[in-house]
Amino acid sequence: ALVAAEPDSEARADDRLHLHFALGKAYDDAAEHEPAFRHYAAGNAIRSGQLGYRAAETTAAVDAMIATFTSEFFTSRTHAGDPTPDPIFILGMPRAGSTLIEQILSCHSAIEGTMELPDIPALALGLGRETYEDGRRWIEALTETPAEKLAELGAAFLRRTAVQRKTDKPFYIDKLPNNWLYAAFIRVILPNAKIIDARRHPLDCCFSNFRQHYAKGQAFSYGLADVGGYYRDYVRLMAHIDAVQPGCVHRVIHEALLDNPEAEVRALLAWLDQPFEEDCMAFHTNARAVRTASSEQVRRPINRDGVGQWQPYEQWLDPLKQALGPVLDAYPASPADFR
Predict the structure, then answer these.
(1) Residue 125 in contact with residue 131, Cβ under 8 Å?
(2) CA-CA distance, 185 to 67, in Å (whole number)?
């Protein structure tokens, strides 16, 4: 049946890419790794051509943020922003365990889960357009934004996201992974918000992205070198934030959470200044809607089924390893002096 379904080269591109991803999953489930990878690669090539991701632009943006958002930048804005502590941001790479963390925290009596909210990127890009008529210049615009405007931006986030709050719990989660690009923006508009960095082994995380056909966005994920470079840029920026804003980000290493869930959950809740609650360990019984690719996984107790899924495909992953560079060997730490 799999052979009979091989995509016809004359089929429409969208139909072909959907079929390639479906065949990749089917061969993967059958442990036939060579045809699985061939179909994943073919589907990714089609989607990459459609989206035209420019890795150099992400790297340049991270370079600019590291140069701009220094210790002095944050110190000079210590009393800026909206002081409301309600939001909890879970960010990092897609497919890194952010949905699991949100599901665990949403079982706490003080924390509400919502979804991946678009508001932080919208506000940052809006600032760039308002200041320079170019959303991409938000980094530069942020350096010129007065304290009262930073407070207005924080208040705007709270106002825009209020519609997502369905309970009277005092804290709520925004789990848009790509908010790592806006970590500095979050720090100055909502200085009392909490930031959690969900991090997973780079090969598992990146290959999981490569196998995933997203409904929209995540253009970086459709090439092994691109997703590896994106992961490397993410680690590079978060290492910088750790250096200039020590203690402001709590990192959850996915494999540590799988190995010792209660200890990791207790540490996370302590960092959030919340007491441990047993309900958090029964997260898989929570019936709340989950709208991400991990929706099925979080309905099951913690398990290690997703660990090492890259290993049968290692012979084809050299472009990914090369793009990751020193990040791969340093994991779960960041490479020393990595900027």
Answers:
(1) no
(2) 14
pLDDT at residue 299 in the model: 47
Both 167 and 293 in one domain: the answer is yes
How far is Cα 69 from Cα 255, in angstroms, rounded to an integer?
Answer: 30
Do 127 and 138 meet the contact criterion of CB atoms below 8 Å apart? yes
Residue 217: other Cβ atoms inside 10 A? 12
Q: Where are the beta strands (DSSP E) in 51-185?
A: 87-92, 111-115, 171-174
Q: Which residues pair with 198 in a beta bridge?
A: 92, 252
Angstrom distance (rounded) from CA 272 to CA 23: 43
Tokens representing residue 86 in the block = 């309600």
Provide the domain limits for residue 22: 1-52
Say yes or no: 27 and 73 in one domain. no
Taking CA atoms, 158 is separated from 25, 67, 155, 274, in Å, by 40, 29, 5, 21
Q: Which amino acid is at 313?
A: Y
Give the closest residue to 197 by CA, choosing from 140, 160, 240.
240
Same domain? 33 vs 169? no
Chain segment 121-175, per-residue pLDDT in tens: 999 999 999 999 999 999 999 999 999 999 999 999 999 999 999 999 999 999 9
Can you give the pLDDT at residue 304?
Answer: 78
